[in-house]
Amino acid sequence: MEYILNCNNITKKYGRKKALDSLTLSIKSGTILGLLGPNGAGKTTLMKLIVSLLRDYRGEIRIKGLKPSVETKKIVSYLPDREFLYQWMTIEEAITFFEHSFVDFNRDLAYKMVKSLGLDVDDKIKSLSKGMQERLSISLAFARKATLYVLDEPLAAVDPSTRDKIIQIILDNFDPTSAVIISTHLINDVEKLFTDMAFVNDGKILLQGNVEDIRDEYKQSIEEIFKSMI
């Protein structure tokens, strides 16, 4: 397995406050990593640096050997924690927009995932609930054949049954030559999805490793370990 992402000694400040403090994180292909931490821990800042939405940091970030840039946007599928789709579009128009924006986008796969999650392609995005918009966003993100998927709180607004369907979609469409980073507070509900995890607090990695190895070492669930460390 090769490394998809390498973050070495990343420090990012907002004024005098350190959002990230000499953070180091590496992810190999075949990894689905849960990025776990409380609000303000630095998870979203790290993700925005990886996808080149933030700059002015110290340290080194490489995605397949490349600095975050226009070039890496071609191989990174990013799902932010806020609504990002044009509200005037229909789902059909959003699919077409993604098809024109990303050469690795699979239109047929997008239709299949949207249908499996109970969405109608003729519906306007502005008419969708937050949970329905999350279903659409995840479908669009995973209809790309990307090298790295960066998902910021992708399951916060969906109900438990839909959450299970989305987890299955991620597993069914996960290419072992790629890698996925998912930040979430819903640890108990989605820890079965992770191969690896990293606990973040105050801009630092407190614990990182293979999920099964960590469970065996601590003799606790990932959520129990998380609660004891934060």
Protein architecture, described:
The chain is α/β, with parallel strands linked by helices and 230 residues long. The protein has nine helices and nine strands. The protein has helices at 43-50, 70-73, 91-101, 107-116, 130-142, 160-173, 187-190, 211-218, 222-229, and strands at 3-14, 17-28, 32-36, 58-63, 76-79, 148-152, 179-183, 196-201, 204-210. α4 (107-116) packs antiparallel against α5 (130-142). The two termini are 31 Å apart.
SSE blueprint:
Layout (H helix, E strand, L loop, with lengths): L2 E12 L2 E12 L3 E5 L6 H8 L7 E6 L6 H4 L2 E4 L11 H11 L5 H10 L13 H13 L5 E5 L7 H14 L5 E5 L3 H4 L5 E6 L2 E7 H8 L3 H8 L1
Parallel strand pairs: 3-7, 3-8, 5-6, 6-7
Antiparallel strand pairs: 1-2, 1-4, 8-9
Helix pairs in contact: 4-5, 5-6
Can you count the helices?
Answer: 9
Largest sheet: 6 strands, mixed
- Within the largest sheet, what's the order of strands? 5-6-7-3-8-9
| Shape designation | globular
User: Could you tell me the number of beta strands?
Assistant: 9
Class derived from helix and strand content? alpha/beta
Estimated radius of gyration: 17 Å
User: How large is the share of residues in beta strands?
Assistant: 25-35%
Give the helix proportion (percent range): 25-40%
Distance between the termini: 31 Å
Secondary-structure element order, as H and E? Answer: EEEHEHEHHHEHEHEEHH
Brief digest:
This protein is of the alpha/beta class. It is built from nine helices and nine strands.
List keywords for this structure.
230 residues, alpha/beta, 6-stranded mixed beta sheet, 3-stranded antiparallel beta sheet, 9 helices, 35% helix
